[in-house]
Amino acid sequence: MQAGDVDAVMAIERQAYDFPWTTGNFIDSLSAGYEAELLLDARGARGALAAYRVAMVGVDEMHLLNLTVRPDLQGQGIARLMLDRLVLDCRRLALGTLWLEVRPSNARARALYARWGFHEVGLRRAYYPAAQGRREDAIVMRLAVPETTHGLD
Questions:
Q1: Which residues does residue 66 pair with via DSSP β-bridges, in sequence order?
Q2: 56-100: per-residue pLDDT in tens?
Q3: Could you give the domains of the chain?
Q4: Which of 14, 25, 86, 125 could form a disulfide with 21 if both were Cys (CB 3.0 to 4.6 A apart)?
């Protein structure tokens, strides 16, 4: 992902979430050198964006900040593919742990992360914005990065 991709990313971000990241969130992440990847939809319009992710590298770990699949393509294994690639990046960088936060209300994402091997390890109270000025907690999940990655080695 580069700064020129942010308009296309924002179009999906706004479709996918009631409380999307801002353009500034993406620009700041890119400026900070975070790992950011796009996945293009080879079946659809030429060059159409299918998914993206942003992750921050730390000492011996990576933190997944945003993984989003275009709503009309969800449920087709794209998020799992993006996770596979992210874990490969962790292994390439010799990072042993992958962290993320997820809304308790996002059952689909929580199920995907659990199937992949993430474990719930904590809770961040009032982490996410929610309807009517409220806040929603975040479940903190951790993955010990495996030595093999679901057939992508």
A1: 54
A2: 999 999 999 999 999 999 999 999 999 999 999 999 999 999 999
A3: 3-144 (3.40.630.30)
A4: 25
